[in-house]
Amino acid sequence: MIRYSLICADGHEFESWFASSDAFDALAEQGHLSCVVCGTPKVEKSLMAPAIGRKSNQKSGAAEATPPPLALKGDGGEALKAAKELAAFMDKVRSHVEANAEYVGDNFADEARAIHNKETEMRQIYGEATLEEARDLIEDGVAVAPIPAKRRKSN
Fold it and tell me: What residue spans carry the region label Disordered (predicted)?
């Protein structure tokens, strides 16, 4: 994993993690990056000092400094609005699944596999599966995806 300082065309600065430098380049080329504040897809790497770790056999005279938390420009209203819109969209996705698919509970993995293997009729289902069950389904070519969790009401 690598952390980059990024900046958008409107000057908003933020940080994000990527699997590798190549992963960042691929996402940028495909237009899959956007500013967390304003949403513009014009995002590039910002100037940053590389963080180079010490060798484990070197002793430090001072504790390593932790960088200060990133402060976004503006009042954060754009980010809050985007977060609320995303939460509303996720609620709609979940509602659509619940209205158009059969709930099979803990039998999800078995039912999904049976449908995939044509051992039972084709139908849309949803339910619960462990991480291991989900990985096994994906490895076996069964098309599955998580659905957004229900939002908790905050006080």
Answer: 53-75
